[in-house]
Amino acid sequence: MTAIPPLLPRIAHGDQAAVKLCIERYGGLIWSLARRLCPADAEDAVQEIFIDIWKNANRFDPEKSSEKTFVAMIARRRLIDRVRHAGRRPEQVGLADTPELSRPPGMEEATDVAIASRAINEMNPDQRRILWLSLHAGMSHAEIAEVTGTALGTVKSHIRRGLVTIREKLSMMGKETERRVAR
């Protein structure tokens, strides 16, 4: 398999064709991250991210990271800055705040969402962030490892333990509810 030549050095030297290729190559990744973290102003966020990429293209060092990691880190930093500036913190976004769950749920579903959200908020920040990148940003384990600088095995463990914790809390609450109903 042939390695894809990096575009950032070409962008740093003013190559306009490389700019277009960069947008085509990384636009989907950046758009999906922006849509999840800043849904109200994702388009503006994507534009700001690409501007940051152009401005920082000369700082890319293929010895330190892949081009995709470099782009993802710039996107992540810019999006976190936007979220913080707006007074929100990405780690504290609960499951109830996601678009898929914003419809009025049934009573049982609302309880499950509250339990899962509480379980996620009780996790350590690294595990919570890795689980969020997997579930909400749709990143693969390898991408998460690359972006966070965490070992791949650790990423897999955090995701697995996080999901097990959520399942256990849901299961415990389900048994507790059954006991109350049986009385």
TrEMBL record:
Question: Where is each RNA polymerase sigma factor 70 region 4 type domain found?
Answer: 117-164
SUPFAM superfamilies given for it? Sigma2 domain of RNA polymerase sigma factors, Sigma3 and sigma4 domains of RNA polymerase sigma factors
List each copy of the RNA polymerase sigma-70 region domain by range.
23-89
Kindly indicate whether the keyword tRNA-binding belongs to this entry. Answer: no
Task: Write down a Pfam family by its short name.
Answer: Sigma70_r2
Q: Does the keyword GTP-binding apply?
A: no
Some GO term, biological process aspect, for this entry: which one? DNA-templated transcription initiation
Can you tell which superkingdom this protein's organism belongs to? Bacteria
Q: Mind telling me which InterPro entries this protein's record contains?
A: RNA_pol_sigma-70-like, RNA_pol_sigma-70_dom, RNA_pol_sigma70_r2, RNA_pol_sigma70_r4_t2, RNA_pol_sigma_r2, RNA_pol_sigma_r3/r4-like, WH-like_DNA-bd_sf
What would you give as a GO molecular function for this chain, any one? sigma factor activity
Q: Which UniProt keywords apply?
A: Sigma factor, Transcription, Transcription regulation
The UniProt entry's sequence similarity note says:
Belongs to the sigma-70 factor family. ECF subfamily.
- UniProt name for this protein: Sigma-70 family RNA polymerase sigma factor
Query: What organism does the record attribute this protein to?
Result: Sulfidibacter corallicola
